[in-house]
């Protein structure tokens, strides 16, 4: 039989994370305060511990992975890479389709790659309590698990629509000892303000971030943890792409295109950034970020300074944004419902070093069904966006006859998303493209600082 699984030994878990900042053509734009002045790293200490800040502002190409973190990584890393031969046959494509499966972690997604790192770094700084937000529940589950491993209490503000849609994600977090609060809540000023304006608000990641940050700054015993967007999160996720490069080397192949779903950017950055190092060295490889049509941050957003949360507690970051007051439709890919994108991903897209596409919800579920029936794994709704794009690339190869190598990251399983699949099978889902007038209205409320 032709090889299907490409595996690494535990000894091949990366010893360092890759920092893309070292290979970017232009340095990242600095975060700003509300008056438009660059902030110092020390200004972040109100919400982040010092070790986290050191990773956030790192400029060296390689950052060592602490041995206690690598020790826990061994519970599920290295993750397997698969050649999707059954999917290739079903499509009838000459393309070679590969996927790296991050759903083998205990939390079922890629999120523990940074959750364990953040929990350890906070542990070394004697932090005993963390506040965070979660959309679909993957990040909240990962941090709940990681916090338990290092004796850290975790409180999670979960976007209300996902809190209702995904009760078993909530159960996972509570099993690991986390407290889960639906957001917007009455627990914080920002939550109460949102509920005063809309008692039936479905919530958003921007609102949940406001609640978690407010909790962190209001308590001396609490720091904030973020599951995507910021530099340190994408840094920790590069174990995905670094392992993938080793796996491709084992079979003497290399991708023509790297594809990953993109909400805040952690999965895409972790998958694509290590390949960007090769691209910077002259190697031809396309890097494609895939987002929902109903939350088209890169493809229809504005490149501007904006806050990372709805209430303006976070510094202003230069990123593609739909406006911090953006409340997306209640699609089932909850991990992709964020108004902004990683400043690093945004800058690379703005400079046309990476690509971005938006996909409608029904087409992504169709692709997820095809994948599940060929490869056996039921993907998370977020991952279906990458699968849709990989299939489209493979169909184009079928048309042209090009035998390209297509690689995507299967960021997590869909075992807790079967309600979404049931609704798809019953014909109860729609595409919900976000209207241009709503984007324009949200962008009118961008911070009044000099914009690029």
How would a textbook summarize the main sheet?
A: 7 strands, mixed
Specify the structural class.
Answer: alpha/beta
Within the CATH hierarchy, at the fold level, what is the topology of the domain at 69-108 and 232-443? Rossmann fold
Unreliable segments of 5+ consecutive residues? none
Mean pLDDT: 93
Tell me the strand order in the biggest sheet: 1-4-5-15-10-11-14
Tell me which CATH architecture of the domain at 69-108 and 232-443 applies here. Answer: 3-Layer(aba) Sandwich
The radius of gyration over CA amounts to 20 Å
Please, could you describe this protein's structure?
By secondary structure, this protein is α/β, with parallel strands linked by helices. The protein is 40% helix and 16% strand. It has a domain at 69-108 and 232-443: 3-Layer(aba) Sandwich (Rossmann fold). It has helices at residues 50-56, 67-73, 85-91, 112-124, 138-149, 160-165, 167-175, 189-197, 205-218, 231-237, 239-250, 266-280, 297-300, 343-350, 361-375, 381-400, 418-425, 436-443; strands at 5-6, 16-18, 62-64, 81-83, 96-101, 129-134, 153-159, 179-183, 223-224, 257-261, 286-292, 302-307, 316-321, 355-359, 405-410. It is globular and about 60 Å long.
Secondary structure: elements and pairs:
Layout: E1 5-6, E2 16-18, H1 50-56, E3 62-64, H2 67-73, E4 81-83, H3 85-91, E5 96-101, H4 112-124, E6 129-134, H5 138-149, E7 153-159, H6 160-165, H7 167-175, E8 179-183, H8 189-197, H9 205-218, E9 223-224, H10 231-237, H11 239-250, E10 257-261, H12 266-280, E11 286-292, H13 297-300, E12 302-307, E13 316-321, H14 343-350, E14 355-359, H15 361-375, H16 381-400, E15 405-410, H17 418-425, H18 436-443
């Amino acid at each position: 039989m032709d090889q299907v699984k490409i595996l690494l030994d535990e000894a091949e878990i990366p010893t360092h994370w890759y920092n893309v900042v070292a290979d970017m053509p232009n340095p990242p734009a600095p975060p700003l305060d509300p008056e438009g002045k660059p902030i110092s790293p020390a200004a972040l200490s109100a919400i982040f511990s010092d070790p986290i800040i050191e990773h956030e502002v790192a400029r060296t190409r390689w950052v060592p992975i602490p041995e206690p973190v690598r020790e826990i990584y061994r519970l599920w890393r290295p993750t397997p890479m698969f050649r999707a031969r059954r999917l290739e046959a079903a499509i009838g494509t000459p393309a070679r389709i590969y996927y790296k499966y991050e759903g083998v972690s205990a939390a079922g997604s890629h999120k523990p790659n940074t959750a364990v790192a953040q929990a350890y770094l906070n542990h070394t700084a004697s932090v005993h309590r963390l506040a965070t937000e979660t959309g679909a529940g993957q990040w909240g589950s990962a941090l709940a698990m990681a916090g338990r491993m290092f004796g850290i209490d975790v409180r999670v503000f979960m976007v209300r629509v996902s809190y209702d849609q995904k009760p078993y994600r909530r159960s996972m977090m509570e099993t690991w000892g986390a407290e889960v609060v639906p957001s917007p809540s009455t627990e914080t000023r920002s939550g109460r303000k949102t509920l005063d304006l809309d008692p039936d608000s479905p919530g958003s990641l921007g609102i949940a971030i406001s609640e978690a940050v407010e909790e962190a700054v209001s308590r001396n015993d609490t720091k904030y943890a973020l599951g995507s967007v910021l530099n340190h999160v994408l840094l920790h996720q590069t174990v995905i792409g670094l392992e993938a490069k080793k796996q491709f080397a084992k079979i003497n192949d290399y991708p023509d295109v790297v594809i990953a779903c993109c909400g805040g950017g952690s999965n895409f950055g972790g998958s694509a950034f290590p390949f960007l190092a090769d691209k910077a060295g002259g190697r031809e490889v396309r890097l494609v970020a895939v987002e929902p049509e109903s939350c088209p941050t890169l493809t229809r957003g504005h490149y501007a300074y904006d806050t990372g949360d709805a209430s303006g507690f976070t510094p202003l970051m230069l990123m593609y944004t739909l406006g911090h007051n953006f409340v997306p439709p209640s699609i089932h890919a909850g991990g992709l419902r964020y108004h902004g994108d990683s400043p690093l991903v945004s800058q690379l897209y703005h400079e046309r070093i990476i690509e971005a596409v938006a996909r409608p919800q029904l087409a992504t579920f169709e692709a997820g069904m095809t994948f599940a029936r060929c490869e056996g794994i039921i993907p998370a709704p977020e991952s279906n966006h990458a699968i849709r794009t990989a299939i489209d690339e493979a169909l184009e190869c079928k048309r042209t006859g090009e035998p390209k190598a297509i690689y995507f990251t299967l960021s997590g399983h869909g075992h807790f998303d079967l309600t979404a699949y049931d609704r798809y099978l019953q014909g109860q889902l729609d595409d919900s493209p976000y209207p241009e007038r709503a984007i324009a209205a949200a962008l009118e409320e961008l911070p009044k600082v000099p914009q690029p």
